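Q: Could you fold this chain for me?
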Amino acid sequence: MLKKLILTGITFLTISNIFAQGKNTVYMEALGVGFLYSLNYERNINDNITVRVGYSYIPLDQEFDIDSGTIDEKATITSIPIMANYLIGGGNHKLAVSGGVSIISSDAETSFGDFDLFSTTAKVFGGGYRYQSLTGGGFFNASTYLFNLGDVGRSQTYGFGFGWTF
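A: Sure. Below is the predicted structure, expressed as structure tokens.
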């Protein structure tokens, strides 16, 4: 399932690059859909619609000292946001309404073996402000997101992105 979603996102972005007359944006978002951070590529399909794919990898390492030795445990959280934005407004300042999914997985390496802790696809909805120059250059966004994790529940986060449009 994860491979199909990634392949679909890559195919969509490739086709949009061939046919669209738009701009590319590369940016880092602190917090946001990637939890701590995400590195993102965004493509303008037209003046009002953009698509985005990102990647976040968070390593966690914990070492415990006990009487019989040291236990080293490692875990990772990976997030791949795939989203679309509808932009409202003109000029360089716009309101963005977002929707899409975030593919989230976590695994662990322990002294007892390797484990896949969980894997899920969260529905993500959001909105916020963005500054994006019409001629390229600096990019900034400030957004809030709502994660819908189905039976697990919902979670809200905020994101701040900085990057470059070309």
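A (continued): The longest helix spans residues 2-19.
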